[in-house]
From TrEMBL, chain A:
<comment type="subunit">
    <text>F-type ATPases have 2 components, CF(1) - the catalytic core - and CF(0) - the membrane proton channel. CF(1) has five subunits: alpha(3), beta(3), gamma(1), delta(1), epsilon(1). CF(0) has three main subunits: a, b and c.</text>
</comment>
<comment type="similarity">
    <text>Belongs to the ATPase epsilon chain family.</text>
</comment>
<feature type="domain" description="ATP synthase F1 complex delta/epsilon subunit N-terminal">
    <location>
        <begin position="5"/>
        <end position="86"/>
    </location>
</feature>
<keyword id="KW-0813">Transport</keyword>
<keyword id="KW-0406">Ion transport</keyword>
<dbReference type="Pfam" id="PF02823">
    <property type="entry name" value="ATP-synt_DE_N"/>
</dbReference>
<keyword id="KW-1003">Cell membrane</keyword>
<dbReference type="GO" id="GO:0045259">
    <property type="term" value="C:proton-transporting ATP synthase complex"/>
</dbReference>
<dbReference type="InterPro" id="IPR001469">
    <property type="entry name" value="ATP_synth_F1_dsu/esu"/>
</dbReference>
<protein>
    <recommendedName>
        <fullName>ATP synthase epsilon chain</fullName>
    </recommendedName>
</protein>
<dbReference type="GO" id="GO:0046933">
    <property type="term" value="F:proton-transporting ATP synthase activity, rotational mechanism"/>
</dbReference>
<keyword id="KW-0175">Coiled coil</keyword>
<dbReference type="GO" id="GO:0005886">
    <property type="term" value="C:plasma membrane"/>
</dbReference>
<keyword id="KW-0066">ATP synthesis</keyword>
<dbReference type="InterPro" id="IPR036771">
    <property type="entry name" value="ATPsynth_dsu/esu_N"/>
</dbReference>
<dbReference type="InterPro" id="IPR020546">
    <property type="entry name" value="ATP_synth_F1_dsu/esu_N"/>
</dbReference>
<dbReference type="GO" id="GO:0005524">
    <property type="term" value="F:ATP binding"/>
</dbReference>
Length: 148, 365
């Protein structure tokens, strides 16, 4: 069996995913990178977008919004990829209903943003980015095949 | 009648003296009162008991959820700490403003921003009172050393002028939750911001405005230290008010926090000390190191505030639960007492009526 790496996706709210995968593609602040087993230790910031892990030729897509990633050699020479995301969700968790909600929320937030003061703005910005990322990633994966 | 009272008092022998006199007072009060009035009273106490019982159950389930989310954020805290130490090893960590202690020369007092976390609602025992008391004693300790002249160090003068912010006693408050806000305003402490509309289930996005505000104020040199007064959730029966420094990010405090998060070290995948730290790994760092560290420090600050909010929330719910449990117990006792008084009054009425009837019979025959 070919080498695998250990992928962990962690948000402050929960542990979203912990799995052995063949490769993982993620959006960093500098652009998209793909990590294969035996990658050298790396630290990078994450942008909003989708993390795509590949397990046995199947894609496992996750929507993320902002955060960090760390690659290191763990015990037993297994490459560990830890993703500390502010928000992460499996694409299958984003149902059509949720997308509609997210869209509505995004529009509502954009309206609200116009007449809010500075402090609230930060909150809305984070929420808005989250909603927009959800919509974008869900649309992207709508027609493709992936592992649920 | 006298004998009856003697029996009653003796029945209460199991209660402490204070209780006895209390019960006796209540009995005296209702001795002459009609049974109807006592009945009404019992009914109202019963209703109160129902409400407190319901509140207790609600608080219990909320507490369970709050504790669960506190534990869930532990993993994230552990990992972000690990990433930070990995980066910090590679570079001069004190190059970033969020990490540097600001030295004050000539005994000039540092300006402190204190984030006070309290609840929005009352009826939660001494939860708010305790953390506010802790804050007040902290403020007092600051005021004692206070210079009579509200002076800031020269190097920060320009920042002060541009901000136009009133420097109160060197301590300004950011209040989270209505109760603390009200208390601080009453004391006349300078409250610079209030966040009162947090939901019961705190999500990370709700913490963003708070952390953003404190970090901005800190970077603009308005304050030299940011502290948080919150309530540490130790167990359902034990909560401790606490004041912790979050900015500048101090490694020892952070380490303490993370160690406290794990009741048993190394549990649930929280990276323990030894893992990955004994051998120093040289990381490749993508992007600009300083921006990366900056945003990491921001995230850690946010994570800390989030964590403290969760702890406080868990404490609030558990102390509300305990308070409501005590209230339900007390109303249960009160119902017992009142029932006794009621029965006594009813029996008294019956006895009186019988004696009246028999007296009437005696006079007739």
């Amino acid at each position: 069996m070919s080498k695998q790496l250990k992928l962990k996706i962690i948000t402050p709210e929960r542990l979203v995913l912990e799995e052995m995968v063949d490769q993982v593609t993620l959006p960093t602040t500098e652009g998209e990178i793909t990590i294969l087993p035996e990658h050298i230790p790396l630290i990078a910031g994450l942008a909003s977008g989708d993390i795509v892990a590949v397990v046995n030729g199947e894609h496992v897509p996750m929507a993320v919004a902002g955060g960090f990633m760390e690659i290191k050699q763990g015990e037993n020479k297994i490459t560990e990829v830890a993703i500390l995301a502010d928000f992460a969700e499996h694409v299958s968790e984003i149902s059509d209903e949720k997308i509609e909600k997210a869209k509505a929320r995004a529009i509502e937030l954009e309206k609200q943003m116009e007449n809010k003061d500075h402090v609230d703005f930060e909150h809305f910005e984070a929420e808005l980015e989250r909603s927009l990322t959800r919509v974008k990633i869900a649309d992207k994966w709508r027609t493709r095949k992936y592992r649920k | 009648m006298v004998i009856l009272r003697w029996v009653l008092v003796n029945n209460y022998g199991r209660y402490p003296e204070r209780k006895q006199s209390f019960v006796r007072d209540r009995q005296k009060k209702y001795q002459m009162a009609g049974t109807k009035e006592i009945k009404r009273r019992i009914k109202s106490v019963k209703n109160t008991k129902k409400i407190t019982k319901a509140m207790e159950l609600v608080a219990a389930s909320k507490m369970k959820r709050a504790v669960a989310s506190t534990l869930a954020s532990r993993l994230y805290a552990g990992y972000s700490w690990e990433v930070l130490t990995s980066i910090a090893k590679n570079i001069e960590e004190n190059s970033h403003p969020l990490f540097t202690e600001r030295e004050k020369k000539g005994g000039v007092k540092a300006n402190v921003l204190l984030v006070l976390i309290t609840s929005n609602r009352g009826l939660c025992g001494s939860y708010n009172a305790q953390v506010i008391k802790k804050t007040i004693s902290f403020l007092k300790s600051q005021n004692i050393n206070l210079d009579p002249v509200r002076s800031r160090s020269l190097e920060h003068e320009s920042a002060t002028v541009t901000s136009g912010r009133p420097a109160s006693n060197g301590v300004d408050i950011v209040s989270v939750g209505k109760k603390g806000d009200v208390a601080m305003r009453r004391l006349g402490v300078n409250v610079v911001a209030t966040f009162a509309d947090l939901s019961n289930n705190i999500s990370l996005t709700e913490v963003v405005p708070i952390s953003k505000f404190t970090i901005d104020e800190y970077i603009l040199l308005h304050y030299d230290k940011v502290l948080v007064a919150y309530t540490d959730f130790i167990s359902a029966l034990n909560q401790k008010p606490n004041i912790k420094q979050i900015l500048p990010v101090s490694k020892t405090e952070l380490q303490d926090l993370i160690n406290n998060l794990a009741p048993t070290p190394g549990e649930v995948g929280v990276p323990t000390e030894s893992v990955g730290r004994e051998k120093s790994i040289s990381y490749l760092i993508e992007g600009d190191m300083n921006t990366l560290i900056g945003s990491l420090a921001e995230k850690i600050t946010r994570m800390q505030i989030y964590q403290m909010l969760l702890e406080s929330n868990a404490s609030e719910q558990s102390s509300r639960m305990v308070a409501m449990k005590n209230a339900s117990d007390a109303s249960g006792e009160m119902i017992d007492d009142l029932t006794l008084v009621f029965n006594k009054a009813r029996q008294g009425n019956i006895t009186r009526e019988i004696s009246e009837i028999s007296a009437g019979m005696a006079s007739v025959s």
